[in-house]
Design brief:
Order of helices and strands of chain B: HHHHHHHHHHHHH
Structural class of chain B: mainly alpha
Strand order of the largest sheet of chain A: 1-2
Structural class of chain A: mainly alpha
Shape of chain B: globular
Oligomer: heterodimer
CATH superfamily of chain B: ABC transporter involved in vitamin B12 uptake, BtuC
Strand content of chain A: under 5%
CATH architecture of chain B: Orthogonal Bundle
Helix content of chain A: over 70%
CATH topology of chain B: ABC transporter involved in vitamin B12 uptake, BtuC
CATH class of chain B: Mainly Alpha
Helix content of chain B: over 70%
Number of helices of chain B: 13
Order of helices and strands of chain A: HHHHEEHHHHHHH
Largest sheet of chain B: none
Number of domains of chain B: 1
Strand content of chain B: under 5%
Shape of chain A: globular
Largest interface: A-B, 48 and 36 residues
Chain lengths: 287, 287
């Protein structure tokens, strides 16, 4: 039973990673930029949620604002940092992204304090449900539900709607899509709105899960999300989803069985390096 | 006062070796590494461990250099399998694997690091001069590489790997050489740091450190020896000059990364070149 429980907890973490990593994959697929500042957007979502929820007493309002503010921040990062650099070598926007992330993290420290903020009212992370002997709290269930609903919704959007098809066309061949009348700029904005909003929700949920929001909370999750998108084959959404769940489970077991040799954060990257040595193009990348 | 000068000189020297060593890998050979601090750490841990066993200074320094270089070549092997963005994330992962490993090793002091390292047997100023001599040698070595046949080949690999292969360059051998030299020098910096600080903690070698080293290289001008030297001195002295700059050190680093990449991707060296270039052009314009 313990073995199964570890697997389930791993999948819950996998869902959280997926919400983070999909945004990164979308950006990479479209612009070929390693969007490290995504971590800042994630932490921003968490801070907005906790501050608004504590001030107004409404968690729903906190989540709504977290989504909006994260999406706006993502679009602003694209508009003011990435767009002017699109013609440069790949490492130029990547380093700008690192710079943005550092600045955001320091700004959180100055505005919200270095010690972090807890939710005033958060009964959800202690309230648990027993599912066939496996104990999950409300936030963990919300995480799985949110990831499933949002990602399935996105899949439907991409395959059924006009804008979604235009988006997919732009990812696979920007020039061709443009000549068929798809506005590439609109697609990019859509991309950052969706990816960043998702990161904002993930941040707010992780804040609830730990009942604690701190300036550096984005860092580790986003490094792992980077590992995940590489593992999934950079730019492949399906690969990213699979890699997220696998990484969550590998970490969950690895933390128990490799505890004496490596810490939790090293396990994901160790797994990444091993996989890349066997399949340099990632799990689902084109070889 | 002389103690302050000695410590400042030591820190500048160590940072300079670190930045120049990364410059060989990233600047000369074009292989982006986001985990350089790991090799700094490998050199430091090797030297610290041996020094506690009573091994003399020069031997521990060489052992640290050799160990970092050997592991560096092994990591360089990954650069033969994966390229560009995959490589950036893989090297970042190596940083986390190193840290995650060290943190769990009781014989390396785990979270507490290694303390009580014996004195180098020189007074602080003489030791600082030793570091300065090492740094000067690394500058000379870098300049020599740049002008040598090997430097030209590195350039070709950085510019266009496939083209270099087509004209008969043994690309894997040169990549491994760059990784070997660069990581060995980072190991030397680690060994020098050990006797300077007399205590090492795992956190000294974390991702932020890797980014700090990369910042010095990028702001100086990737690939430019004198640019990197200038930016290392400037960025190391900055927190000493003003109290505000030391409180907001990371914020300033992040902001500079964004501004430099946005307006002068060639860094200080690029700025100097375009300044001299326009001056020369003006002189030519005047008959």
């Amino acid at each position: 039973m313990y073995f199964v429980e570890l697997g389930v907890k791993g999948l819950v973490y996998g869902c959280m990673y997926a919400m983070m990593a999909v945004g990164l994959t979308l950006v990479y697929g479209l612009l070929r930029i390693l969007h490290i500042a995504h971590a800042g957007v994630f932490a921003l979502g968490a801070f907005i949620a906790v501050v608004v929820a504590n001030e107004t007493g409404s968690l729903a309002l906190g989540f709504a604002l977290a989504i909006v503010v994260s999406a706006v921040a993502g679009v602003a990062i694209y508009r003011f940092a990435y767009q002017p650099l699109l013609g440069h070598a790949a490492f130029v926007p990547m380093i700008v992204s690192i710079g943005i992330f550092i600045v955001m993290q320091e700004a959180f420290r100055m505005v919200f304090g270095a010690y972090g903020i807890a939710f005033d009212y958060n009964p959800y992370y202690t309230a648990t449900v027993d599912l066939a002997g496996i104990r999950l709290n409300y936030v963990e269930i919300a995480m799985v539900v949110a990831a499933t609903v949002l990602l399935v919704g996105f899949g439907l959007f991409a395959s059924l709607t006009r804008a979604g098809v235009g988006w997919r066309a732009t990812v696979s061949d920007p020039q061709m899509a443009t000549s068929f009348g798809v506005d590439p700029v609109r697609v990019r904005y859509l991309n950052f709105i969706f990816g960043s909003g998702l990161a904002g929700i993930a941040g707010a949920l992780v804040g609830l899960l730990n009942n604690y929001v701190e300036p550096t909370m984005g860092a580790l999750v986003s490094y792992k999300a980077l590992a995940i998108i590489v593992l999934g084959g950079l730019g492949s959404v399906r690969g990213t989803l699979i890699a997220s769940l696998i990484l969550g489970v590998v970490e969950s077991y690895g933390t128990i069985y490799l505890a004496d040799i490596f810490d939790r954060d090293a396990i994901g990257f160790l797994f990444l390096i091993v996989v890349l040595m066997v399949r340099p193009q990632g799990l689902l990348g084109r070889g | 006062m002389s103690g302050y000068v000695a410590s400042l000189l030591s820190v500048i020297g160590i940072n300079m070796i670190l930045a120049l060593s990364l410059n060989i890998i990233t600047g000369f050979c074009g292989q982006v590494s986001l985990g350089h601090a790991a090799f700094y750490g490998i050199g430091a841990y090797t030297a610290a461990y041996l020094s506690k066993l009573g091994v003399p200074l020069l031997l521990t320094l060489s052992a640290g250099t050799a160990m970092a270089g050997l592991i560096g070549v092994a990591v360089g092997l990954t650069s033969l399998r994966v390229r560009h963005d995959f490589l950036a994330v893989t090297t970042m992962g190596i940083g986390f694997v190193f840290l995650g490993f060290v943190r769990k090793q009781k014989w390396l002091g785990a979270e507490l690091g290694i303390s009580g390292i014996p004195a180098p047997g020189l007074d602080p100023l003489a030791y600082a001069l030793l570091i300065a001599v090492a740094a000067a040698s690394v500058i000379a070595f870098s300049l020599w590489i740049k002008r040598s046949w090997m430097g030209f080949t590195f350039d070709a690999v950085a510019d266009d790997e496939d083209a270099a292969r087509t004209v008969g360059v043994n690309v894997p051998a040169y990549k491994l050489t760059a990784f070997g030299i660069g990581t060995a020098l980072a190991g030397l910096a680690g060994g020098l740091y050990v006797y300077f600080a007399r205590i090492i903690l795992p956190d000294t070698f974390d991702f932020v450190q890797s980014i700090a080293i990369l910042t010095m290289v990028v702001i100086g001008g990737t690939g430019s020896v004198w640019g990197v030297v200038a930016s290392t001195v400037a960025l190391t002295l900055l927190p000493e000059v003003s109290r505000a700059a030391s409180d907001y050190r990371l914020l300033i680093f992040g902001g500079m990364l964004i501004l430099v990449m946005r307006f002068s991707p060639g860094g200080l060296a690029g700025m100097a070149r375009s300044f001299l270039g326009s001056k020369r052009a003006r002189r030519r314009a005047v008959p």
